[in-house]
Amino acid sequence: MIRHHNVFQATVVLAFAMVGAGVGFWFRVNFAHSVWIDSLLGAMAGAILGLLVSGTILMITNYWRDRWRDE
After folding, report:
1. What's the pLDDT tens digit per position in 29-50?
2. What is the per-residue pLDDT across 46-61, written as a single tens digit (0 to 9) for each?
3. Residue 70 lies in a domain
4. What is the pTM of this model?
5. Cα(66)–Cα(48) distance, rounded to whole angstroms?
6. Which of 4, 39, 41, 64 could form a disulfide with 28 if both were Cys (CB 3.0 to 4.6 A apart)?
7. Which region, left, alpha or beta, applies to residue 2 given φ > 0 means left and ψ of -120 to 50 means alpha?
8. Residue 17 CB: number of other CB atoms within 10 A?
9. Is residue 71 part of a domain?
10. Which residues lie closer than 8 Å to 59 by C-beta, 6 or more apart?
11. Residue 56 lies in a domain
C-alpha cells in the first residue's frame, strides 16, 4: 500500500529534478551560448544536482521526523 507521505516525497524529488533541469538548461543557453546538445548536458547536470539536493533534504527531514516520533 502506498502511503501519502511516500507520494509527497516522490513529488518533491521530481519537482527538484525538473527545476534543476530547467535551470541547468537555461544557464547553458544564456551564459555559455552553447549548442543544444551541450544545453541538454547542462540540463542533465542540473537534474542530478536537483536530485542530490532533494534527497539530502528528505533524508534530514525523515531523520528528524523519526527522532521526534520516538520521543
Report:
1. 787 766 767 778 888 888 888 8
2. 888 888 888 888 888 8
3. no
4. 0.67
5. 27
6. 39
7. beta
8. 19
9. no
10. none
11. yes
Instruction: Provide mean pLDDT across the span 7-30.
Output: 84
Q: Which three cell numbers stand for residue 18?
A: 525538473
**Phi, psi of 32, rounded to the nearest 5 degrees:** -95, -15
Helices and strands per DSSP (H, E), number in the chain: 2, 0
Summarize the chain as % helix, strand, coil (round to 5): 90, 0, 10
Amino acid letter at 62?
N
Q: Which amino acid is at 4?
A: H
Cell of 14: 521530481
Nearest to 56 by CA among 5, 13, 3: 13
Q: Which domain holds residue 13?
A: 4-65
